[in-house]
Amino acid sequence: MAESPANAVSPVPPPKPRLPPGRVPRHIAIIMDGNGRWAETRGRPRYEGHAYGARSVRKIVTAAREAGVEALTLYAFSVQNWERPDVEVERLMELLLDYLVSERETILKNGIRLQGIGQVERLPPKVLRQLRFLESESADNNGMVLTLALSYGSREEIVDACRSIARDVAAGRLVPEDITEAVVDRYTFTHGLPALDLLIRTSGELRLSNFLLWQSAYTEIVVTEVLWPDFDEPEFFRCIETFRSRERRFGKTSGQVASEV
Ligand code: IPE
Ligand code: IPE
Ligand code: MG
Q1: Which tens digit of pLDDT belongs to each residue from 39-58?
Q2: Which ligand is nearest the CA of 154, by number?
Q3: What is the pLDDT of residue 15?
Q4: Domain 27-246 carries which CATH code?
Q5: What distance in angstroms lies between residue 142's CA and the mean position of ligand 3's atoms?
Q6: Is 220 in the pocket of ligand 1 (CB under 6 A)?
Q7: From the CB of 77, is ligand 2 less than 6 Å away?
Q8: Is residue 76 in contact with ligand 2, taking CB distance under 6 Å?
Q9: Which ligand minimizes its atom distance to the CA of 35?
Q10: Is the pLDDT of residue 2 over 50?
Q11: From CA 44, how far away is CA 23, in angstroms rounded?
Q12: Ligand 2, atom 14: closest residue by C-alpha
């Protein structure tokens, strides 16, 4: 028998997914992949996959902030992605602008510091302006650093770092003997962020696609089959739990690591 509206019990909202207590990676990076396939399997244009992907970005930024992650770095657009068809690039730039405008309040309210890394000067002027605006508005926040890799390429970053180091040596500001790992790190975009603990790639692809090659030397990599538009809080927390189950040895033996704990 159908219930009358007067007697209808309002449905209890599902409980908010929570990360079980335990170690939280200080710095997580995500290769947000699979938007195009998500759309194509639905017979939809690729840009719809990107639009749904933007919703996943919003969810995961909030989930990371609430979980106590110090730094979240998202691969949103690679240097190589400029080679995609013009309409797709245009749509991605529109979505990026839309994100930077619509998320401003959430970012500021949650104490998030936003920064863009990569060849950002190649972004359309409107997008770059909004990026710079939000970077400066959020500069004093100390809740979580949200880094958007935009027009980013890791080999390009390393080449730029080499050029800057060479210039500083030529100008007498640096002597070659003083170039250490820490010095090289200072010339990268991620300088000042905690070491990259966990790299997640969605959509099952087993490659780095020119992302954070220097930074990921000892990063734990977790690949999920889930396509980025379907990536949600429970899947994000599963990736963190996989990270927790790993033993990070940094070249040592298991016995050494166990005795250090
Ligand atoms: C990731 O999804 C978004 C960007 C690279 C900008 P893709 O667009 O690469 O999706 P697939 O890999 O074609 O499914
Ligand atoms: C990597 O994904 C770039 C981003 C997620 C922004 P791609 O889809 O461009 O990588 P490939 O081409 O499959 O290696
Ligand atoms: Mg892809």
Answers
A1: 999 999 999 999 999 999 99
A2: 2
A3: 85
A4: 3.40.1180.10
A5: 32
A6: no
A7: yes
A8: yes
A9: 1
A10: no
A11: 40
A12: 209
**Domain ranges for the chain:** 27-246
Q: How far is the CA of 31 from the centre of ligand 3 (A)?
A: 9
Give pLDDT tens digits for 127-139: 999 999 999 999 9
Regarding the beta carbon of 33 and ligand 2, being less than 6 Å apart is answered: yes
Is the pLDDT at 11 greater than 90? The verdict is: no
Ligand 3 midpoint to CA 144 (Å): 27
Distance between CA atoms of residues 57 and 69, nearest Å: 15
Q: What is the pLDDT of residues 105-125, one digit of tens each?
A: 999 999 999 999 999 999 999
pTM of the full predicted structure? 0.95
Question: Does 110 sit in the ligand 2 pocket, CB within 6 Å?
Answer: no
